Amino acid sequence: MATPLKFAGLLLLSTALVAPAALAQEVPAPADATTSDPQAADPAAAAGRSTAEDPEAAPDISVPGSDIIVTGRRSANVQKNIPAVVSVLSSADIARTGDGNIAGALGRVTGLSVVGNGYVYVRGLGDRYSLALLNGSPLPSPEPLKRVVPLDLFPTNIVSSSMVQKSYSANYPGEFGGGVINLTTNAVPAESFLTISGGIGANTETTYQMGYSYYGSKSDWTGFDNGSRDIPPALAAFFASGERISSGNVDTTAIAAEMVRFSKGTVQRIKDIDPNYSATISGGTSFDLGGSTLGLIATAGYSNKWTTRDQRQQNSITPDLSALNSDFQRVTTDNRIVVNGLLGLGLEFGENKIRWTNLYIRDTLKHTRMGLGNTQTQPTSDIMEQDTAWYERQLIDTQVVGEFKLSPAFSLDVRGGFANSQREAPYELSFEYIRTNAAADPYGNLFVNRLNGNTGQTATVSFSDLNEDLWSGGADLTWKPSADMALTAGYAYVDTNRTSSRRDFQFRASSDMPEGVGVLRPDLLLAPGIVNYYDISLIETNEGNPAFRATLKNHAGYGKLNWQILDDLSLDAGVRYETAKLTVSPLQVFSTPGASTASTQLDNDYWLPSGTLTWQMRDDMQVRLNASKTIARPQFRELIYQFYFDPDTNRRYQGNPYLQDSKLFNAEARYEWYFARDQRFSLSGFFKKIDNPIETFITLNGDNFVTSFANAPKADLYGGEVELQKYFDLSSMSDSAFFSTRRLVTIANYTYTKSKLKVKEGDTTAVFGASSTLATDYFRNGSPLTGQSDHLVNFQFGLEDQDKLSQQTLILSYASKRVTSRGLANQDQPDVYEHPGINLDFVARQGVYVAGRQFDAKFEVRNILGNDYEESQSNGTNKVIYNAYNYGTTFNFSLSTTF
Fold first, then answer.
1. What are φ and ψ of residue 302, in 5° steps?
2. Belongs to which family (predicted)?
3. pLDDT tens string 617-636
4. 739-774 b/e with 16+ CB inside 10 Å = b?
C-alpha cells in the first residue's frame, strides 16, 4: 500500500503547521467501528420478500400519469410494455451489483455514466440535461453548483425501483434533454419485517494509512456540529449591522480575534485512519382494515467513510503548455458521514393507492487538505497550503401521491409535495505559507505567513449558506373510451426559491508585524493575543455580490394520447405547454445598496410535442420510433455572478447572468427482442440537435483560473446502444447438486456517442463582464460536449442460485476519455480530459445460517485492477496534469438479517 503522501518532503515540511502530540491530542477515532456499507442490502428482502420468491412481480413505479405507463398486453415486464424507451432497475437488479447508493447502481444502466459526486450523465449529456424525480415529484438540490440533486445522496435501501426514461413523453417536465430518472420508494410491504444490517469496509489508499484531519467538535462523528461552528458574536453583530468593512466603520480586529481556534484551524496527522462502517435498520408492517390495507415502512441508516487522496494538480497559461503556472502535490482526507431516514405510509383499497413519503438525508463532509508546490511567479520558493472545511448537506422531503381508479374508464393521479434542501459551510479556512529558500532571507529556510495578501502569505475564512424550498403539485386524469385508447390531460406546478450567500474574508497584518510571528501555526498566528497586539484586521473580498436569491415558477399542462391502432401497432403522442419565470438577483445585505447589474430575468414559454410509434412485429419483438422537442434551463449557480470554490475538483467557479435556455430536438429508433423471461436484446440509434447548449470555459482572474459558463451556438449529438441480458441454465452441466439450481447471468451493454459543438466565424455569445462576444473566443468548432464519453461499456458476469440466496458477480465498466473543462479562453489551449478507463468489481451475496437464523452476507471488492483517476491537458508534446490520484481498491463486508 502506498503512503497517501508520496511527496516525502510534504511529510517533513508540514511539521510547521501540524500540531504534534505534545501540544494536543490526536483526532479521536469515531466510536465503535465494527461494521461495510450495508446500504446496498437487498430492498426486496427488506420489504419482507426475497427476489427469488417472486421473480415475475412488476417493480413498483410511481410517475405522473402512472395509469398509462403499461399498455397493450399487461405483464410484469414494464420495460417492454411502457410506451417509451426506458430502463428499469428493480430491487433485485440493485442488489446484484451491490452498490451502496443509487448513483452507483444507475452507472450500470445502458448509456448512463456517473461523473463527479453522484451526477448522472445520460448518453453523454451533462447533469443539467437530466431530471431526477422521487415518486414523480421534483427534488431540490443542496449543491450550490447544481439545481439537480446528486443521486449519491440516496442509499439503495430506501428505493423500491429506479426507472430511467430516455425518450420524452408529455407527462414529464419539459427539462428533458438526456432523460428522466424516477426513484420510487417502498410503500406497502407484502408482510411484516424488521431488517438489521451492518458492515465494515477498507480502502488500500486510506484505511490504516496516514492522513490528515482536525479536531472540530466532539460530535463530528455523528455528522452534526455541537455548536462550536456557530458564527462568532462579533461577526454575527457585523452581519446584522448592514455595514460594509470598506466603509471604515467596522472594528475588524475584534471580529478577527474570534475567528480561528485550535479546534478548527489546526491540522493533525492521523497515523492510522479507521475503517469505514455503517448500519441500517428497516421495518415495516401492514394492517388489514377490512377492504383496505394500510402499510407502514420506516428506515434509518448511518454510514461513516474516510477517503484520502494523494493528488498532483497543475495548470498552465501558455498556449503550448510549455510552462506551468502552478504545480502542487496535495493530500486531501475527507470524512463523510451520511444519516438518512424514511417514513412511509401507504393505503391500498381496491385499485387505489395513497402514498405518503417522508424522507430525510443529511450528508456531512469534514474536509482537510495539505499542499506543497510552487507557482510561476515564485519559481524558487515553496508554498505550503492548509485547508479545513465542514460541509453540511441536508434534504427534507414530504410528499403525498394518490392513484385512484374512479371507474373502469377514468383514473386520476394527484400529487403534492414540499422539499427543503440546505447546505452550510461555516469556517472554510485556508492558509498559505511561503519558504523563499533565499540565503539573504533570515527566515528563508522556514515557512512564513506575513498576512500581507501576497502569494503564499494569505489567510482566508469563508461562511456560505444555501437554502432552497420547493413546492410542487400536479394532477393527471386519464379517460379510456375504449380498451385500445387512453386520453390523458394533466397539470403540474413547481415553485422553487433559493437563497445563497457567501461571505469571504482575508486577514491582513500591517507591515510592522515582525516576520518571526509569521512562522507560527495558524491557530497561534491568529490567536486573540496576537490579533489584538498587532492589530490584525479583515477585508471582505466579495463585497460586491455576497448573496443572491433565485426563483423558478413553472406552470405546465399537457394532453396525451395512447392508442393501440392495430393489434401490433400503437401510438403514444402528446404535447406539453410550459411557461416558466426564472429570476436571479442580488440580495441586499448592506444598508447601502450596491450597484450590481448581475441579475437574470427569463420569462419563456414552449410547446413541446412528443410521439412514440411502436410496432410489435411478434409477441416478443418490437420496434419503436420516437421524436420530441425539449428544453434545458440554466441552473441557478450557473447564473449567479459569485465565486465558488469546489474542493473536489480544485476549481473556482463564477456564474454568468446572461445564460439562456437550451432547446433540443430528439429522435430515436429502437429494436427490442424479449426472447425469454427477464432476457432481452435491444439495438437503438439516437440523434439530438441542441440550440444554445450551455458549456464551460476557463478564464484568468489574477493568478487564479476561473471556470464559467456560456451558451455555445449549436451542438449535435448522435450515437447508438446495444444491450443483451441472457441467462444460461447450468443444471444440465453436471449431476452435482451445486449446479442443479444455478444459472449463469450475463448482462452487457455498449453505448457509442459522438457530439460536436458547431461554432463558426461571426457567431456570438454573451458573457457578463467580458469584453468579447465572439463565440470563437470561448469554444472550438467540432469539440465534444463537456462530460461526454465516446464509448461506455458495462458487463456483468455471474452465478446465481434460483432457489436460495447465492450470487457471485463480476462487474466490468469502461468509459473512454471525456472533456471536463475547456482550455484557457483566447489561448487556443487543448481541452482538459478525464480518463476514466476500465473498472472491475466483484460482489458476492450468500445466505448463511447462524444459530438457526438466516443472514445475508455480502462481500465486495471494488476497483480490483487499481484504476487511477487522471484529468489532464495535452497537445501531444507537453502535458499538464490537472488532477491525478489513486482510487485504491476497496473491500466491504456486510451482514443483514430479517425478522
1. -145, 135
2. Belongs to the TonB-dependent receptor family.
3. 998 999 999 999 999 999 88
4. bebbbebebbbbbbbebbbbbeeebebebbebeeee
**Using H for helix, E for strand and C for coil, what is the string for 575-635?**
EEEEEEEEEEEECCCCCCCCCCCCCEEEEEEEEEEEEEEEEEEECCEEEEEEEEEEEECCC
On whether the CB atoms of residues 717 and 124 are closer than 8 A, the answer is yes
Partner residues linked to 859 by β-bridges? 844, 893
Q: Is 20 exposed, middle or buried (0-12, 13-18, 19+ CB in 10 A)?
A: exposed
Contact 288, 51 (CB under 8 A): no
- Side-chain-facing half-sphere of 686: CA atoms under 13 Å: 30
**HEC-encoded secondary structure of 632-690:** ECCCHHHHCCCEEEECCCCEEEECCCCCCCEEEEEEEEEEEEEEECCEEEEEEEEEEEE
Q: Please list, in sequence order, all residues whose beta carbon lies within 8 angstroms of the beta carbon of residue 584, skipping any fewer than 6 positions away.
A: 548, 549, 550, 599, 600, 636, 639, 640, 655, 657
> Half-sphere exposure of residue 487, counting CA atoms within 13 Å on the CB side?
4
Which helix (H) or strand (E) element contains residue 235?
helix 233-241
Give the pLDDT score at 719: 93
Other C-beta atoms lying within 10 Å of the C-beta of residue 380 = 9
Long-range CB contacts (within 8 A, 24+) of 852-855? 853/897, 854/897, 854/898, 855/895, 855/896, 855/897
H helical segments located in 467-554: 522-525, 528-533
* SS3 state at 344: strand
Question: How many CB atoms within 10 Å of residue 459?
Answer: 26
Look up cell 381508479; give the residue: 405
Pairing of the two strands 179-185 and 130-134: parallel
Beta pairing class for 837-850 and 879-886: unpaired
Cell representation of residue 174? 419539459
Contact 373, 337 (CB under 8 A): no
* Per-residue pLDDT tens digits for 294-328: 999 898 989 999 999 999 999 998 999 999 999 99
Distance CA 161, CA 341 (A): 17
What 3-state DSSP class applies to 56? Answer: coil
Distance CA 537, CA 383 (A): 23
Q: Rounded to 5 degrees, what are φ and ψ at 434?
A: -120, 140
Whose cell is 479583515? That residue is 538
Element (DSSP H or E) covering residue 557: strand 547-566
Closest CA relative to residue 860, chosen from 896, 812, 897, 809 = 809
How many separate helices (H) and strands (E) can be counted in the chain?
A: 12, 40
Beta-carbon contacts of 852 under 8 Å, excluding residues fewer than 6 positions away, are: none
> Cell digits for 504?
469571504
Backbone region of residue 208 per phi and psi (left: phi > 0; alpha: psi in -120 to 50; beta: other values): left
Positive or negative, the CA dihedral 544, 545, 547, 549 is: positive
Nearest partner of 76 among 90, 64, 65, judged by Cα = 90
Q: pTM above 0.85?
A: yes
Q: Closest Cα to residue 71, out of 799, 570, 409, 544? A: 570
Cα(254)–Cα(239) distance, integer angstroms: 14
For residue 157, the model assigns a pLDDT of 60
- Of the candidates 359, 384, 355, 383, the residue with the CA atom closest to the CA atom of residue 369: 384
User: Is the distance from CB of 577 to CB of 607 less than 8 angstroms?
Assistant: yes
Alpha-carbon distance of 527 to 506, in angstroms, equals 15
According to DSSP, the residues that pair with 478 across neighbouring strands are: 411, 488
Q: What is the pLDDT of residues 464-514, one digit of tens each?
A: 999 999 999 999 999 999 989 999 999 999 999 999 999 999 999 998 999
